[in-house]
Amino acid sequence: MKKKSLLRMGAVLLSYGFMINAMNVNTGMVVMAEEFSADEDTEPEDTTDQDIAGLPDGEENTEDTAYGNAENQNVEETQDFQDIIDAEGNTENTIEEQTEIVLPQKSVVMPFSDFLPVQEQENIFLLNSYSDLYLLHIKNDSEVTYTISFNQVLRESDVVLYLFDSEKNSVVDQEPVQDIMDFNENDTELCLNLKPSSDYVLTIFNAENYEKLGYTSRIVTGQNQKNETPAEEETGDSDSGYSTDSQDQSESEEVILTSVKLELDQDLETVPARFAKYLNTLKVYSVTLIYSDGSEKILDKSNGQYDLDVKYEDEKESEKTVRRIYHATLNEPATGKIFEDTKSVVLGSKDPAEIKTEEMTTLRVSGKKKWIMVRSTPGITGRYALNSSKMVKSIYYAPDDGEIVCTEDILNLHQGIPYNFLIKLD
Q: Is-contact 144 219, C-beta < 8 A?
C-alpha cells in the first residue's frame, strides 16, 4: 500500500517538473522577442525547424494559421461584395430608356427602341404589345408611300391612325385620320400615302387577338415614284429599229387573263345566320384577276373590260349556322372567254368582336370597309346614340334569339343582355 502511494507521488512530481520546464521555455521566447524588437540591427534567429519542448507538433503555428485564414476570408468577402456591386451596376446599365405615349384612350409606357419610326423590313419584324395595344410610329420628311404587310388578318375596326407630335409624345387630335390609309381586300396589307413632314402613330387595338403579330414594310418616296419612267419612254425611237420578228415575238408574249380568284371577307364568319339576309346589299367579296405573267390585280368595278356576276345560295348546317356558297362568273367580251370561281363560308361559325361597355357609343372604322359586325353587353339600361368615325347608314341589332331591330342611330338596350350589331356604313 505504501509502495503504491510513493509511486503516485513520484508521478505527480514528475508532471510538475515538465510543466515548469515548459514555462521557462515560453518565458525565454517572450524575452527573446522583446530583445529582437529593441535591436533593429540584430537578425532574428531562424526557429522554423526548432521544436518547442512540451508542446505538441504544429501547435506553435496555430496563431499564425488562424490569422492567415481570417485574412483570406476577409479578402474573399471583399471580392464577393465587389462582384455584387459590379453586377448591380451592370443591371442598371441594361435598363432601357422608357417613353410614354399619350393616346386618346390611355397613356402607354414602352421602351424607346420599340417606338422608333418604321423602316423598310424585308424579313418579318415581330411587335411587342403594351396595354393590349400594338403601336407603330410612322414619320417621314418627304412625300412617301408605306406598304405594310402583316403576318395575320386584322380587323379594320382594330386599326386606327392618329396624327402624332413626337416632341410632346402625344396625339394631336382625338379623332383618327381618314382617307390616307387603305387595306387590301384580305385585310393583311396596309397602304399609307403620306405628305412631307408627316408624323403618325398607327394603333392596333385588342392585341390579345393577334399573338406574335409581325410585319414587313416597303417604302417608296415621291421622288423615286417620279423617277420611275415607263419603258417605252426610256427607249424613245429605238423601238423603230426592231425587226418584224421581234414585233411578232412581243405580240406572242402579250400578257393575257388566264383565271380569276374569288375571295370572301373573313368577318362573314362572325355574322349570325339570322342576319344573313341583311348582307345582300353589302360588298363582302373581291375578285382578283390572274394574268399569264403571274401578276395579279384586284378587279375594279369601274373596269369596263369585264362583266362580273356573283350569285350565292345558302345551305343550313345547324340552328345557328348557315353555309353560304358564292359563285363568281367573269366575262371578257373582247375574247368571249368566261372565267369562274366558287368559295363558301359558314355564317355564325365565330363570335363577333366584343366591344367594351365604355366603347358602346363610339366605333372607329378604318379603310374602305362598308360594314362591321360587333357584340356588346350594356352596363346601363337606356337609349344609346351610336357614333362612328364614318357615316352610319343603318344598324341591325338584336339580343340572342330576340327580334332584330333596324335603326339609324338610337339604340334601346337593357343592362346585362348581350346584343349583336350589324352596322352598315356609307
A: yes
Q: Which of 408, 345, 416 is nearest to 376 (CA)?
A: 416
Determine the straight-line distance between the first and last CA of the chain, rounded to whole angstroms: 132
pLDDT in tens, 46-100: 444 444 344 444 444 444 544 455 455 554 555 554 555 455 545 444 567 899 9
Residue 339: its H or E element: strand 337-347
**100-225, what's its fold?**
Jelly Rolls (2.60.120)
Q: Is the pTM of this model over 0.90?
A: no
**Helix H or strand E segment including 331:** strand 322-332
pLDDT digits over 157-167, tens only? 888 899 999 99
Residue ranges of domains in the chain: 100-225, 255-347, 353-425
What radius of gyration do the chain's Cα atoms show? 43
Q: Which of 391, 393, 392, 397 is nearest to 412 (CA)?
A: 397
Q: SS3 of 361, please?
A: coil
